[in-house]
Amino acid sequence: MGKTVIVVEHKAKYFLDLASEVVVLEGKGRAREFRELDEYDAVSRELDSLGVDASHVVSKRKDRNKKGWKVLEVKNLSCWYGNRDEEPLFEDVELELESGEIVALVGPNGSGKTTLLKAIAGIHKKCNGEVKISDENRKKPFYVPQVPEYLFIKNTLEEEILSLSKKTGKRIEKITEMLEFYEHRKSSSPYTLSLGQRRWLSAVIAWSYNPPLMLFDEPTVGLDKLMLSELFRRIEILKKEGASILISTHDPRVLAEVAERAYVLENRKLKECDPDEKGLELEEIAYGRL
Fold first, then answer.
1. Do residues 190 and 259 both lie within one domain?
2. Any bridge partners for residue 244, and if so which?
3. Structural domain contains residue 25
4. Which parts of the chain sit beneath pLDDT 70?
5. How much is the pTM?
6. What is the 3-state secondary structure (H, E, C) of 3-61?
7. Structurally, how many domains does the chain consist of?
8. Domain housing 223
9. What is the pLDDT of residue 137?
10. Order of strands, edge to edge, in the sheet holding 244-248?
11. pLDDT of residue 39
12. Is 62 domain-assigned?
């Protein structure tokens, strides 16, 4: 149709076969252009060196043999959006998590992944069935929503962190060391941060509460490659400390790199699947091969 299309994206690999050129913004007014995209492998390697995700997903070996105590047990759970005489969004869901376990939840848009997380967190009430959460300190699970702004309550980032420190008992320095943009943006409203920064701040808020169970809804959206690597690193630390993490995602990298187990929610039913196989399947879909 003769239109020019500009795509702003951290996962450039899915667009390299469509693009006629790639421009990488390096900060401080610098930009680098790539116009010869026929040499896919060479361009991918150079983009990766600049912190742009241009590589294929590769499954990492994960230890799935450890058995901890059961943190979450969901039995025969059915949830509705509207009246209970209507068809449920999903029904008879069975799911469990052990301490120190990372589990992914995948499925099509609208299949009910967010509703399932909210039901586990006790936010969504139109449900039948049982959700049992075991924690000796009686701490509730922490739900991190798709929209990170829902967790912000103050007008500046500095006030946000001060409030978080008072509520959690965490030292301000311990919180801000996880926010590399803090000094530069502390006087700004948290609502004016970039999407990736807002997403990261919402994760830091969750970590500061030290909940036994964390429920992340699409936590990788908007994160650049370096921030994604840091997210995965911190998730692994939390796992070693005994935290359990359930991640709703469409991102193949979550399944391939950190998820030890995975569930797929589709056609109102939940079933367990292999995270590596599912991650590679999602990668193929993203490339338009399935």
1. yes
2. 213
3. yes
4. 62-67, 135-138, 289-290
5. 0.91
6. CCCCCCCCCHHHCCCCCCCEEEEEECCEEEEECCCCCHHHHHHHHHHCCCCCCCCCCCC
7. 2
8. 70-286
9. 57
10. 142-144, 213-217, 244-248, 102-106, 261-266, 269-273
11. 79
12. no
